[in-house]
Amino acid sequence: MTTATRIFNFSAGPAVLPPPVLQEAQRDLLALPGVGMSIMEISHRSKPFEDLLNKAVEDIRALANIPANYKILMLQGGASLQFSMVPMNLLTPGATADYIDTGSWADKAIKEARRVGTVNVTGSTKADNYSRIPAASEISLTPGAAYVHTTTNNTIEGTQWSGLPAGAGDAPIVADTSSDMFHAPIDVSKFGLIYAGAQKNLGPSGVTLVIIREDLLARSQASLPTMLNYKVHVENDSLYNTPNTFGIYILGLTMKWLRGLGGLEAIGELNRRKAGKLYTEIDRTGFYRGTAQKESRSLMNVTFRLPSEDLEKQFVKESTAAGLDGLKGHRSVGGMRASIYNAFPEEGIDALVAFMREFERTRG
Ligand SMILES: *Cc1c(COP(=O)(O)O)cnc(C)c1O
After folding, report:
1. Residue 154 C-alpha to ligand 1 middle, in angstroms?
2. Atom of ligand 1 nearest to the CA of 205
């Protein structure tokens, strides 16, 4: 199969994967070279699988130069389980966790944290339909907070932080990076914990990447349910129980692909170029209208509206027919959303821009 026979997939997640990754998986599906069985048929305790897991972890560490005092885990349960695991492990009794409320996913994280302990919600941009990232002056953090939780990219609303919340002091920053992990260089040493469901920018669904600073493991109480305890997963190198072996394999291939492309600097440049083309088209005449405020625009999820809901319906229908799939925005926002993660090809951006021009020319 070649890329020519694939349509352009703008899905928000699970999302597009790199064709070389799919091709390698297809080639080795019946029998992994040197193993003679498929990845799905071998023990997670076998040397071939352990090698594969170790290689994926090594590649992740190399991609972002992750310091040795950070542990890298591959868990299950999605980013949504991290909404619970983070407070269960890190929100120490009597302490407060700060949560910055920048979108629907941040809101879900807040709701779960509240089941566990005391939460201070700050910097909420809900009154502006989450169309922007809050200014530093809008964020008031708790002195001595257990941690500060942030969502680096707001998948549904199409906004993205360009830096980190200021003023966290000694409080570790915990980041949900599900929809922009490895979209550009990331300085892991600035975070206490990073988590990401893999299905947007890292691989397939069913794997969650968690990167945790070693000293924070001291907070995980032995009374926690075993499977929800970070310390247990670290002590067992993500192999306390059977992990998603196939998912980790595909994630590993995706990390190899990313390194081959030149790593995070190279992908960052490509992502800026891809998003730039699309925003330029959105801003060209006023027919299209970006829903995120300009300084908060996401490089990963580009959200925009048309002059009427009727035109939006036509746009979805005709773009789908033209092989541009998945452009309908999330139901809570409406309009369009083009998710253009790392693996989304630049030709697909060019095709969408051409489609938008033609649509405006005939309907504008
Ligand atoms: C998709 C998404 C989630 C939910 O991920 P699951 O793996 O489905 O639980 C959480 N946070 C963000 C920012 C997301 O984009």
Report:
1. 10
2. 7
